[in-house]
Structure formats: structure tokens, C-alpha cells
Amino acid sequence: MKISTKGRYALRMMLDFALHPGVCTKIKDVAARQQISEKYLEQIVTILNKAGYVKSVRGAQGGYYLSMPPSEYTIGMILRLTEGSLSPVDCVEGGMNSCGRAGYCAANGVWRRLNDAINGVVDSITLEDMVNDYKKAEEQAGKE
């Protein structure tokens, strides 16, 4: 399984919004800070906006902001929205096994454990955790 640029950039954009609480952030500012194409971010923010993850404000002082506190977003929520399923193989997607070989497939247990591990990790990390990690890394970089 490989996370696409859409998923990675959505995560970076959401982190950027979380790092600027109470501020309507313009996409051009996120693009400049994150060094990502503004046009690509506009496509991604549309997905986030439709899902209710961000809200928009029109006008000269407008922009986007998180619709919930960073602690209420898991990384899994953001990645699933932009990537779809995070399952490593189709036969364990959504908890239903559509493979006719599931009952005697030796690899099925491996795929299930891998799927559970992936979901366990992305669902246990919040956007707030990422903000805290970012601030710690920034602090450490300042000490060096």
C-alpha cells in the first residue's frame, strides 16, 4: 500500500490549518509554506470542504479553517477521505472477505493482521498529535 500525493498533501494542508488556529488560511499561503501546487491544493480542499472537515469564508479576509478541533481528526479519517480504503489487499477491505479462498488461504491471516496494524496506527494518531510533534521538532531544530 502506498499513500498518494493527494493523501499526503491533504494531511499537510490539515496540519497547516491546525497550526494556525482561529485564522482563515488562504490556499496560496498553504501552498507557499508547504511548497505544493496551489491548483492541486484547491482540488484537495474541495474534497475536505464537501466532507465538512474544513469550512470556508469568502472575501478578501477569507480562507479555510478546521471545522472541529485538531483532536477530533484522526489521520485515518483524512487518509480514507482522500485515498479510499487503506487495506493492503482487496480481500480484507471493509472487514468483509469477498475471496472464495478465504477459508483456506494461508496468506489471509497475514493480510488481516497487516490491515489491523495499518488501521490501528492511523486511527490512533490525531491531528493534534501531529501539531505537538511538529512543535517539538521545531523546538529541537531551534536548539541545534
UniProtKB/TrEMBL annotation:
- Spell out the Pfam families in the cross-references: Rrf2
Q: Which GO terms describe its cellular component?
A: cytosol
SUPFAM superfamilies, per database record:
Winged helix' DNA-binding domain (SSF46785)
Keyword Cytoplasm attached: no
The alphabetized UniProt keywords are:
DNA-binding
Please give the InterPro entries that the UniProt record associates with this protein: TR_Rrf2-type_CS, Tscrpt_reg_Rrf2, WH-like_DNA-bd_sf, WH_DNA-bd_sf
GO molecular function ontology, one term from the record = DNA-binding transcription factor activity
Instruction: State what protein this is by name.
Output: Rrf2 family transcriptional regulator
Q: What organism is recorded for this protein?
A: Candidatus Lachnoclostridium pullistercoris
